[in-house]
Amino acid sequence: MTNGANWKPQTKLVHGGTLRSGFGETSEAIYLTQGFVYDTAEAAEARFKGEAEGFIYSRYANPTVDMFEKRMCALEGAEDARATASGMAAVAMALLCSVKAGDHVVAARALFGSCRWIIEKQMPAYGVESTLVDGTDLSAWEKGIRPNTKLFFLESPTNPTLEVADIAAVAKLADSIGARLVVDNVFATPMQQKPLELGAHVVVYSATKHIDGQGRCLGGIVLSDKEWIEKNLHDYFRHTGPSLSPFNAWTLLKGLETLPLRVRQQTESAGRIADFLAGHTHVERLIYPGRADHPQADIVKKQMKGGSTLLCIDVKGGKQGAFAFQNALEIIRISNNLGDAKSLITHPATTTHKNLTEEARAELGINPGTVRLSVGLEDVDDLMTDIDRALSRAA
Description:
The longest helix has about 30 residues, at about 245-275. The strands form 2 sheets. This protein has a 7-stranded mixed β-sheet with strand order 1-7-6-5-4-2-3, with helices on both faces. A 5-stranded mixed β-sheet has the order 8-9-12-11-10. It has a domain at about 260-395: Aspartate Aminotransferase, domain 1 (Alpha-Beta Complex). Helices cover about 40% and strands about 15% of the residues. Helix 8 links the parallel strand 5 (about 180-185) and strand 6. The chain is α/β, with parallel strands linked by helices.
C-alpha cells in the first residue's frame, strides 16, 4: 500500500495510518494493554533511550491511539498529533504548553465556558496574563497585543452564536509578532475548514463531537508541526497523563470512516432548517454560517467549504419561550452535546455558558431566548415539522 499522500479525504479517513498485526485483520485492532514486553534487557534499554522504535507504555503511546493520530494528521495536513482523553484536555494542553509565566495571551471573547475559564482563571494563576477581544475585529486583535504576547486563541465558528473569525488574517498578525495561533475547529469540523492551511499553527478538536458523532465516547486531539509537538507537548503529555483510551481511539477511528457522509448530510439539513426558520413568526433571530445574511458571510465563503451542522436561534418570549420550545420538541432531544447523529438542543445561558456573568453573556449575544441546535441525521422534513409544532406550542 502506498503512503496515501495523494488520496482524497474520504479515502484517508478509511485507510490512513492503519497498522495490521500478523493476523491481517480487516478492522483496526484494539490494543487494550497498559505496557509492552521486550525480548531482552538490552532491547528495553534501547527502546527507552530512543535508539529502537517501538511502544513502551500506553500512557506515552499505543498502537490503536497511534492509528487515530496518524489518520487525523492525514486528514488535517499536520505533521504530528497527540490524542487526549477529552476535548478540554486537548485545549488545556495546547494552551498551557504554548506559554510560560510572564507571557501574555490574546483570545477571542466568544469561547466555550471551560475554555474561557482556562484563559481568565487558570492562566493568570500561573503568571500568564490574558486579554479577551472581539474575535471578528482584526483591529481588536492588534490593540490587544503587548510586548510579551506569545499566543492567540480562537474558536471559529464560535459556541454558541456561530461568529466566524478571519483565521488567515489573525494568523498573519500572530506571525508578525512571533506568536502562535491555536484554533479550536470543532464547530467547523476538518471537513469544512482547515486552520493549518489558513496559517494557524495549532488546531484542536473535541473528538467527542462530530468525529465520534454517535454519542459513544470522549476524546480530543492536538495537531501541529512535529518540531512544536516534540519540543512543547511531548514531555507534558508523557508526564501528566492526559492520554486517550485505546478503546475510545478505536471508536473514534470507526467514527472517522463515516465523518464525510455525516457532516455532508447534517450540513445540508441544517441549511434547509435555517432557510425554513428565517423570518419565522416565533423566531426573533437566526444565525447560520451557510446563509448570505450571516454577519461574516464573506469570511465564511472565503475559508469554509460549507455551512455548519449547527444553528443559533433566539425564540420569542425569552427564557420562558426557549424552555417551552425545548420541552415541546418530540424528536430533537435536550442535551449539551453536539455533532451527534441525533439532533440535540441546548439553552446556553443555563448550561454551557451559565458560569458567565449576565453582562458577559449579553456581550457574546447569548440572550435569555437563545438556543443552540445541533442537527442530526433524522429526516429533515420530520425535524422541520417537530420544530414548527414546538414553536407554535411555545407561543
